[in-house]
Every structure is written in structure tokens, then in C-alpha cells.
Design a protein that fits this description.
InterPro entries: Znf_SWIM. By secondary structure, the protein is of the alpha+beta class. It contains 13 helices and 15 strands.
Length: 444
Amino acid sequence: MTLDANQILALAPDPASAKAGSQLAVPRNWSNLGRSDVALWGECQGSGKTPYRTQIDLSGPAFKCTCPSRKFPCKHGLGLYLLRTSEPALFDPSDEPAWVRDWLQGRQVRQEKKAPADITPEAAIAAAAQARKREEKREDKVSAGLLELQTWLHDLAREGLASVRSRGQGFWDAIAARMADAQAAPLARRLRRAGSLLYQSGLRNAEGLAANELASLYLLARAWQRVGQLAPALQADVRALLGWTLSQDDVLRQPAVTDQWCVLAQSTFDDERLRVRATWLLGAGTGRWALHLQYAVGTQGFDVQLAPGTAFDGDLCFYPSAWPLRAQIRRQDDAGPVPADLEPSGLDGLLDTYADALAAQPFLERLPVLLGGLVPDEANHGIVRDAQGRCIALHPSFRHPLHLLALSGGHPLTVCGEWDGRMLLPLSVRHEGRLYNIDSDFPS
């Protein structure tokens, strides 16, 4: 499948790359263009004598270029793909040249290596013993840190949030630093975020959002004290929220779920020194949701390219959880458009599903949803209404209510977003057969 221009630009690592790629998508910049059933290639003249060799594996899509850019995909990869979309006649079908064929074969070998490797029972026992010793030491540090956090939360509950406003962000940074020392880095990030809600966000109902975050942290601290009494899947959730990670190889050893996976929403954001790309996938056959997370440093690119509005046949392996959402991709084949008959849910179905999810996993921060029949309220931009006229509040961090209103024109929309039990955060919109990814299609 060849993506359309909007889907290609959604793959850009930043707006500058998208703009530069668009400028390169003209025939005069390219030579030796070609295509096969699985790949595109071409040569783009840069500032040096030797043109850059650019190639695209269409099954991903995946990109490779000989230019020195550390961005991924680079502007040449974006420009080549955009040119194929706008000028398909320029790409004559032919056999791949050796430099393209070698790259494709190398990708195939790396994909095969993703399959879980067999290890001897003796090696597995020894590795497990060493890992357990490391875990016991860390568990002691986390337990001490969470006892301190509980005391801090008790004091804060007695004083009230209003009483700490005069202390500034440093009040929150101090306890966050303690959690980092206790090897509970996710709690440190959440505490800083709670403080920033009060001092820096300017969001309506900031106090309520901060209070909900602190209540969730208290629940997590109490759960850790009884973690041995929890079901194994819920233990995995608690440990993940406290910062324990599972290697990709371990995840890929989990049973795979095979389906046609629809890429319905994608957002890229900064998390301290990392760039994070979060992609929501929905199985067309199973109805299962999956969250695919990727991390990059600086201008480093993301390994897996998933374009909103597309779908692929594949196998996903889910992280252990009482309500599994996060997943790794084991196999990704046969990209195509999102099926037109993908059925959205209604508000009643969302509330039932959320109740089931929260009963299974009480620490759930967000639930993905595809809601149909939503109409933005013209008088109150902070809400949308369903087919029965019921109000659904939009999350105060949502910055594009006027875009929703303009896109709707008073007609129902299908919205993919995240539900936190009280509010909806829209991430993408389906309208008249097209998916608009808010992170890339709606200007800030």
C-alpha cells in the first residue's frame, strides 16, 4: 500500500522534517527512481558529489538513506515517498538494485531474530537467581520510599492543597527526588506533574486533577504493601507503575494475538530527556485495543513506522496486566487502509467497559475508546454531545475544540480518544472516510 500525503507527513520526526520532505518531493531532485512490489528507491542529489541513496520498505513502511541526518525518517525518505504519491508514473517497476536488495534481506534477518531464542534450563535458573537478588535489593528501597511517600501524603491531606500553594514547585520536586532515589522513577515524574498542574498548567479544575493524581499514588502505595496478596496479573501492573520493566524479548515470548490492527491515533511528546511516540491500535476482528510505545533520544528516529489511518495484518504480544493494553509488534505485514466498517461504541458501552476495566485494574489511568455520533457543542466548547444529547466533558488539556466544531459543522463525528472516567481526550477524528490525527493534522 502507498500512503497518502497526510499519512506520510505524520511519520515525520518533527515539523521541520515534514516541511523539508515536502520541498524535496519534486522530480528535478531525483534520479534512478524505481519500485518493486515491496520497495521504492531513488537517488537525491545533495551538497556533495555523490547523491544520497534513499530506499523504502513498503511493508513497514521502513526507511534507509545514506545521508548523514540522524532524524528518522529523514527528509529524503519523506520526499521520496511523497513523490511516489504525487507522481507514480515516475517509478518504473523493476528488480531491486543490489543496494536495495541487500537492505531488504538484512531487515528480514533481523525480523527473524525477534523470535524468542531458546535457552537451556540451567542457564535460565542461574539468570533467574541473579535477577531475584537484584529485585530483592530494589524492593527494599522502593518499600522504604513508599512509606515516606505515604507519610508525606497524610501530611498533605491534613493541610490541604490550598495550603501548599505558597511553597512553590520545589515542595513537589523534593519528594519527587526522594522517589527517584528509591528507584521509583515513575512516581517522581507523577509527583512533578501533580505540582506543575497547580503552578504551571493554567488548566481549569487543576486542583481536582492534582487531587485525583495524588489519590491514585496513595492507592498504589497501599497496594505495594500487599503486593504478595494480589493476583499475578495485578502484581505485574503494580510493579510496572513503580518502574519495573520487562524486556522486549520477554514480551515477545507471550502468546501472540493475530488480527488486522488499525492505527487509529498517534501522539509524540517529550518525557524529560526522551521523545515518546504513543500509538493506539484496534483489532478489527477481536475488538482489542493495544498501546504501542516507542522511545527515542534527541533526533533519533523511531524504529517502527505506524501511520494513522492505516491497518496491517500482524501479531501483537501484550505485557502482563489485569487489563492488558501495552503491546509489542512481533509481525507486521500487508498494510492497507482502515476498514470502512469499523464500528464505534456509544457512551453506555464505554461506561460498561470502563467499569469492567477499573474492577480488574484499579490503577488504570486511561481507557482507549472509539466513540461514534459525537457533536461538538456550539455554546460550550468544553463538551460534546452524543446521539441522545448527553454531555461528555472534554479534557481541559485538549487544545482544539474549535477544530472539532469546524470539522463537524453540526454533524456527528467518530472520535478516538482516551477516557479517564470523567473526561474524554480526543486524539483523532474519523469524518467522511478520512482519519484526522489531531497530533499531526490539527495545527497548534
